[in-house]
Amino acid sequence: MSIDELQEYGMVKMDEKEIEGFLSSQKTGVLGLPAEDGPYLLPISYGYDGHDRLYFTYLLGSNSRKQTLSEATDTARFLVYKVDTPYNWQSVLLTGHLTAIPETEWDALNEIPHTAWRPAVFESATLSGDVKVYEFQTDEQTGIKHEGLPPALEPNEM
């Protein structure tokens, strides 16, 4: 079923302001990169500039598949979602492109990449590992949400 068909069940499209608010309130999502053997999906935290750019900090190993795929792709997708109940959830899908930010330009980003949530193990490993920052420039965005019971389950008002 399409989004339009699901509207009768209470699902609605998010407007630009709702998408910005949602992205600002979340800290993690799933980055999708094209790969020969199917999409490479990577759960990752992000910093958000409040408009159309996300920032990812990669902790790299000696043979980093995410770095190789990030630098080879023209188009990437990023999914951010939150599920509270079966009748209360939101998701935003972004399509865009990735660019590695040179370390000499990290200070110009202010605190944006540093606002991302990270597992404690990554914070410790950052001290000894190779780190790179990538900018995700959004070209397209779609947000959908469902808040409350579907109309068919709403109590009848008398």
Q: What can you see in these coordinates?
A:
This protein is α+β, with helices and mostly antiparallel strands. It contains four helices and eight strands. It has helices at about 5, 15-25, 65-70, 120-125, and strands at about 10-15, 30-35, 40-45, 45-50, 55-60, 75-85, 90-100, 130-145. Strands 1, 2, 3, 4, 5, 6, 7 and 8 form an eight-stranded antiparallel β-sheet that branches. A hairpin with a 6-residue loop joins strand 2 and strand 3. It is elongated. The model has no long low-confidence stretch (mean pLDDT about 85).
Topology, please?
Blueprint: H1 3-6, E1 11-13, H2 16-25, E2 28-33, E3 40-45, E4 47-48, E5 53-60, H3 65-72, E6 76-85, E7 88-101, H4 120-126, E8 130-147
Helical percent range? 10-25%
Radius of gyration: 18 Å
What overall geometry do the principal axes of the alpha carbons give?
A: elongated
> What is the rounded distance between the termini?
32 Å
The overall pLDDT average reads 83
**Strand content range:** 35-45%
Overall SS class: alpha+beta
Number of strands: 8
Order of helices and strands: HEHEEEEHEEHE
Give the count of helical stretches. Answer: 4
Low-confidence stretches: none
Main beta sheet: strand number and arrangement? 8 strands, antiparallel
